[in-house]
Amino acid sequence: MPKVDHVQPADPNPTPTPSDGRHTPTRPVHPTRPTRLRRLRTWLGEAPSRCAPPLSKYRWLRLISYLLLGWLALGIGLTGPQEVSGSYGLTWSDAFLIVLPQAAAIVLAIRRPFVAWAVSLTGATTTALLARPHLTAVPDPGPNWPWSVHALLAQAAVLLLLALRVRLRGTVVALTVTVLVTLVLQGGMATGRYSGTGTLAVALFVVVALIGAALRSRSEARSELVQQTTITAEERARRTLLEERSRIARELHDVVAHHMSVISIQAQVAPHLVERPSDELLENLAGIRNNALEALTELRRVLGVLRSENPEDPYGLGGPGTGAAPDAPQPTLDRLDALMENTRAAGLDVSAEVVGEIRPYAPGVELSAYRIVQEALSNALRHAPGSRVHVEVGHFPNGLHLLVTNSPPLHPVPPSPGAGHGLLGMRERAAMLGGHLVAARTPGGGFNVTAFLPGDLTPDPADTTPTGEETP
Prior knowledge:
Blueprint lengths: L35 H9 L14 H30 L3 H17 L4 H19 L12 E2 L3 H17 L2 H21 L6 E2 L1 H72 L9 H28 L29 H10 L3 E7 L7 H21 L4 E9 L2 E8 L15 H11 L3 E6 L5 E8 L18
Parallel strand pairs: 1-2, 3-4
Antiparallel strand pairs: 4-5, 5-7, 6-7
């Protein structure tokens, strides 16, 4: 790739230079300040916090909830003093000082629900106690007592926010104390003429607490479900990865076993190729053969653990039950032509191209290359029926380059019965050999799989790019 010199970017705000060559200082340009709307969006956040009011899953719902709470607090703060002053005979200033904490408790409940509940209940109790001496001088039917309208609304709103924020035990404690205070005021301290609001207040508080507790339980159940779903997905991905690695290990067993068998045979034949071999040579060759035989025995045991009773080839393009037998020979690049013929018979237009001079590779490289091409063709059959597929096999000095490209499907794509983890297996095979694999959609709607496998199984990390090709 040709080297490109670094070019200093032009100043977006150049300083004008007069024609006489003198430099004219200019004021520094400040970055664009965020608008009020942007600051509001940042304050509301992308997701609801634990302090968010009800119905606040979305940002605009949180904003509406905050506006409603603020509107309720403002309405109680403006109309409450007039109601207390006219109904209970208190001065407007005293009524304002009593009602103001109850209005502020609604806003405070967003952050400190227990403190807000205590402030609201204290304000309502103080209002009832201060109004009690004036109840004997009012005409029938008398004012609402011990809960006025504004106190009832404020306490209900605070209890709802508290039930949404704290556990059920805390909600029960707050509701019980509120009900006891109401019963003590109306049942033990009532006097004069009044319209009793204790029963209505208790019923309203119980309903509000139940609604808040139900919404909180639903939110907790949803959070637990999301967390459990995430854990399940992670476990499924981890299990799939282990299954793919186990499948690769089963296939590579034959390759390793073949080399160990060759070592054992060569160690047995070597003494007959030398006249009068020494005792040390015979002893070393016998040790090599015995170690090779022991390794083969251990490989058979490992294979017995990894391999199921009736393994099916997950990469096969044929029908069910046509998988390879446990002791069938592992495929190599020589069988790619037969693989593509089977794919053409299944309905795909497959073209092949070989780049470079064909040369032998290690058995693990040829096996992995065959499986990668096989899985790519299988994916094209499942997800792109009727498409055109081009397979390119490039032989380069530093390794094997594979390219499988398919066009968009010509027919509707039916639901795939597969597990959807073929790409994971292909990447595992490439990474096992020190190579890499990239799979991505093409601009035209098709799909492209590019893989590089080092030819010597010990590639240089700095030189894994085929000649004339860029790293995918």
